[in-house]
Design a protein that fits this description.
This protein is of the alpha/beta class. It has 7 helices and 6 strands. It has a 6-stranded parallel β-sheet, with helices on both faces. β2, α5 and β3 form a beta-alpha-beta unit. The longest helix has 19 residues.
Length: 196
């Protein structure tokens, strides 16, 4: 019996920590970049003057690229993408990563073949999550309505972006703690649960 979410014809995935295993040590990255501990990296960089931020963005890109080259698919990611594709469901990806690192990550994890280039939305082409612009861009491309779509992610920004765009939200948390469940319509510990 397919999961009830298979009735939704448009699926949007987060990448790091959702389709691929989480590898980023954001605290160490913030320290290496000299950024405050209590704020996310992209927001910290956005608050800096462009001349100060530019070299830090370049360092961030290099750090992320190193991680991207060793990316591994999350458990259940490939079977889920295969099943969605077989059902004719449109799939896209929305990440706070850069376009280059998105491509490298998906290639390294063996998932690139499931996505059309136009359906990969990075921080280079839309304001980063939790802003809903990336989801709205995909829905416009697909000529889809928000109530036909679902956003799948492991972080509160994924869920907030989905809520702001009007899609259903799936919260992936392998620890089963779900601290941000208030933003989720479904909570799962593994992508495998979405196949059941």
């Amino acid at each position: 019996m397919p999961h009830p979410l298979f009735a939704r014809r448009y699926w949007i995935f987060d990448m790091d920590g959702t389709l691929t295993l989480a590898q980023h040590d954001f605290q160490a990255m913030r320290m290496a970049l000299g950024l405050p501990e209590n704020q996310t990296i992209l927001e910290s960089l956005a608050a800096l003057p462009s001349t100060q931020a530019a070299p830090l963005y370049a360092r961030l890109q290099a750090m992320e690229l190193e991680i991207a080259q060793t990316a591994q698919a999350a458990i259940g990611a490939e079977p889920l993408l295969q099943a969605l594709t077989a059902q004719g469901i449109q799939i896209g990806l929305l990440t706070r990563n850069s376009a280059l690192n998105t491509q490298v990550t998906l290639q390294a994890a063996g998932l690139a073949q499931y996505f059309a280039a136009a359906d990969l939305i990075s921080r280079d082409c839309a304001p980063p999550k939790p802003h809903p612009a990336g989801i709205q861009r995909l829905l416009a491309q697909w000529q889809a309505q928000p109530d036909e779509a679902v956003m799948v992610g492991d972080f509160v920004y994924d869920l907030q972006a989905g809520r702001a765009a009007g899609t259903a939200t799936v919260y992936l948390d392998p620890s089963a703690q779900f601290p941000d469940r208030a933003y989720a319509d479904w909570c799962v510990q593994s992508l495998v649960e979405l196949l059941a």
